[in-house]
Amino acid sequence: MASKHDTDVNNLLQRREVLGPAYRLFYDEPLTPVRGEDVWLTDAAGRRYLDAYNNVPVVGHCNPRVVAAMTEQAQTLCTHTRYLDQGVLDYADALLAHFPGCLNRLMLTCTGSEANDLALRMAQACTGGQGVVVTQNAYHGVTQLLAQLSPSLAPHGPAVRTIPPPHTDDNESVAAAAARWGAHVAAAFADMQAAGIRPAALLVDTVFASDGIFPPQPGLLDDGAAAARAAGALVIADEVQAGFGRLGGPWWGFAHAQLQADIVTMGKPMGNGYPMAGVVAQEAVVHEFAHTGRYFNTFGGNPVAAAVGMAVLRELEERQLPEQAAQVGAYWRQSWQKNAAALNHAPVRGLGLYWGVEARSGEHAARVVNHMRQNGVLINNSGPGGRILKIRPPLSFQTQHVDQLMTALLGAWDVSQ
Amino acid sequence: MASKHDTDVNNLLQRREVLGPAYRLFYDEPLTPVRGEDVWLTDAAGRRYLDAYNNVPVVGHCNPRVVAAMTEQAQTLCTHTRYLDQGVLDYADALLAHFPGCLNRLMLTCTGSEANDLALRMAQACTGGQGVVVTQNAYHGVTQLLAQLSPSLAPHGPAVRTIPPPHTDDNESVAAAAARWGAHVAAAFADMQAAGIRPAALLVDTVFASDGIFPPQPGLLDDGAAAARAAGALVIADEVQAGFGRLGGPWWGFAHAQLQADIVTMGKPMGNGYPMAGVVAQEAVVHEFAHTGRYFNTFGGNPVAAAVGMAVLRELEERQLPEQAAQVGAYWRQSWQKNAAALNHAPVRGLGLYWGVEARSGEHAARVVNHMRQNGVLINNSGPGGRILKIRPPLSFQTQHVDQLMTALLGAWDVSQ
Question: Is the dihedral of CA A269, A256, A51, A365 positive or negative?
């Protein structure tokens, strides 16, 4: 019988052989999970890992209610949106109830990339423009259009301008930081217009995840949004990372920021792993887009997606997981403060259950991540230079899981210097 | 209790209210299926409809083996391709076994749109070009890039040139038709180059579905492919419509055409309704693309997708559904010939279980489609002017289903003149 090591090496070789080199793996010693349950992943050797990284299984890995809803609907009917179906409408109603009244139309896709791509098509239809402002290290998806709007992946396209993420410097007021960021946005659109490019959108991930995690604060994005509107652009809140209660309490980053968005996109946790994503927009935006043509997404909004999405909503609502995320996030912050000295007072930023810790360097971050993986706790690193430890567990994460996470982090921090 | 009529009207109103006007419905009297089984859809009133239209449920609506595979894996583990997973590699091996040896790398997405978008990014990476040649009424997907390459949806983009679909005129040899089509392709690339646009790809749906259905013939695409290569472009076979045995016998349209493709894309039937799609390409193409950066699709190639995809492959293989499609398709052609006079010798084109019938006009086609729907058989119309009746049932369709389809078509043809 092949050893676990041999099995993993064979898997790696076969992977290179059939999937090719564009695919990347996590960790120096890649993980081979065979079982997921709530906040736990188990490998073939029976070793359990605490998952403090995966935001897709928002209501827990292999959530029984979600799997049951999926199975029951898949056994019954799975068609598409060109037939009438009550399930998708009930889901749309239930989801839109979590939005302010002006954001009242839902269009369904299968991935966050498709949602962002569609949102930009909408913004282009409404403005007649092509120009988009994004943050310096943004990531918005993998379509050709979005790759050009994702400087963290590749150099940005010709109709794109980049700005720093918004944040408050030490002792700076939110109003001052908002004005500073608003000036960046205004300058970016002015530069675009000077080059003859008509503005279409300001597109922001409301937790600025790939820029290093800068959680929303009330009013912080207001001046930037005003500058975008003054330039004739729409404001798109990309909630693929921040949405569905991830930040604790209010379900969306734009709600935490008290931002007026024209379009909101969402994805990852929406189906707890079932491929579904969506765009919520103002009625006028959807109507303007509809003038340019019909929209049909073969799998988007199918009856199984609707049933799965509804089960995820009900789990979030009934178990009050966004509220729990706020509490557990506060506990994590306290725990961090208690251990700040042992962690060299490294800067930490976050909200709810989305946290970033600035390591000393990208190399330090990578060593911490790999050390923690060897000790049974899964996180990762990202941000500029890979220097930010990224922590965003399933929302069913509890205080005892924070304790285990902190113990692993403390153990990894020094040996990884 | 609300009548069925009231329920449908309420559903329609609610749909407009929450999904908005970009969504369209089939049929003058929209259908509200509540149950799917093999080739049947059943509405709330218990009425059964023969599904002669939906190509996604390729191994039958709610196929029990596929649902069981999905459920079992979803109960066990659903992560992503940044961990090692044997299931996705086994699936890749099983799928690639259906391709010629030079097409030996698989990348997984969630939708055909994502697959075509990725294929074009690959072609752009390999050629340094942006220019794409497509057919006049092509449809390749809904991303911003693909909308520009889908003249059936919207006017094509500036780096796009269009050509007619290839076909043999009466008594014309395949070689003559191939040469004629090759000249169109060569002229399109020459025009593009004269405008300073560097060629990237010739992108063709190998059954030319939205152009009116022109099934592949051996050698018919050869001269066009040679012209594309002479211009420095890659050849992309879009198998989203034609693939997975739809045309009977060989699994792919490019195989029926004996076409050498650099990249092949697939989608709709791949997961029998579970959102999955993919790109199969030559090793050199994937390597060239990988130089431009990594690729990660959150849901693409997840363990549930792999399990579902494998169950679909096994159903197709073990039940020999592509072979059955060839036989049932031949039976349909015989049945058509027997009834040709009653159908005014209307032109019919197709292969396996993908058929197009030219109605007298778009209006005639729409009336036939609606009449058949009222008589319990589901087809649709598409192509230029909506004049082509489109017939592409699940591959489990059998001869008795052909008889029912033909009876409904005969009944609809004359009353719809």
Answer: positive
